[in-house]
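Hello, quick one for you while I still have it in my head. A protein chain has come my way and I'm curious about its shape. I'm sending you its amino acid sequence along with the C-alpha cells. I'd be grateful if you could look everything over and explain what you see. Here's the protein in full, and shout if anything looks odd to you:
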Amino acid sequence: MVEKNERKDKSESVAKRLITGKAAEEYFKINYTSVNVFSEFDLKDTTNMACGFDFKLSKESNFYCIEVKGLSSNSGNVALTEKEFFIANELKDKYCLFVVVNFVEKPTHQFFFDPLNSRLNFKKIERQLTQINYSTSI
C-alpha cells in the first residue's frame, strides 16, 4: 500500500510539472514579441523535435534557440536535461533559458542568454534508474 502511494505522489508531481511546462510554452508563444530583443523574429515551434530547445527564433541570418521552463511560484528549481545542457554549451549566447514564474498568481518571465555562463549555478545530478518491462509473445 505504501508503494502505491509513493508512485501516485510521483506521478502527480510529474503531471503538475508537465502542465506547468506546457503553460510556460504557451505563455512564451503569446508573449515573446514583448521582449525587445525578440520582437521582430519569426517563431518556429521545436517542442516535439527533441533538439535540446523548445523554440527557434529567426530573423534573416540571426537566430536564438529558446528553452522554456515554468515555475508555479516566484522561485524554485529549474533542471536542464543532458541534451539541453549540451546544446546550451555549444550555442552559448544564441541559447536562451526563458523561465516563466508565478503561475499561481500572475505569470511573468525572466530570461538568461548563455545560461551556463550566467549568474545561474547549475549542479550536475546523476541518477541511475531501473526500468521494468513486461513482455509477451503473440
